[in-house]
Amino acid sequence: MFSCNDKTDFNQYKSIDTAGWKANEKVSFEFDVKDTISSKNLFINIRNNSKYEFSNLYVITELVFPNETIVVDTLQYQMADETGRFLGVGFTEIKENKLFYKEKKAFPVSGKYMFNIRHAMRKNGAIAPIEFLKGIQDVGFSIEN
Description:
Blueprint: E1 8-15, E2 21-22, E3 27-33, E4 40-48, E5 56-64, E6 70-78, E7 95-105, E8 111-119, E9 132-133, E10 136-144
Antiparallel strand pairs: 1-10, 2-9, 3-8, 4-7, 4-10, 5-6, 5-8
């Protein structure tokens, strides 16, 4: 028996090196948009393990349009509750987090888009980003109807 999932337009993950997510290293996703009318929900998908030391995650995103317009956002997501228990789903030490990036977004231009994401985590009081952010295993991006 086969079923068709019309809900997801795009879903892709990229693995992060076991040494950690390097500071200023962009994880990039390229996707085509043909439908400029329908609203879509865009998600950042993060898989983390128990080596992740923080209760939140700061990221900087860039959405690059086919006409080279760039929308940059700095976002914060909660990764653990007040007791330190990781949020997300998963029965093992790996938790998967589906984080809203844009809600009900209609793409104004058809063509090839690029989504870039990099971490912006710093130790308290530090200016420089954490050189290798440990505990993030995969970074994903998805678009759903």
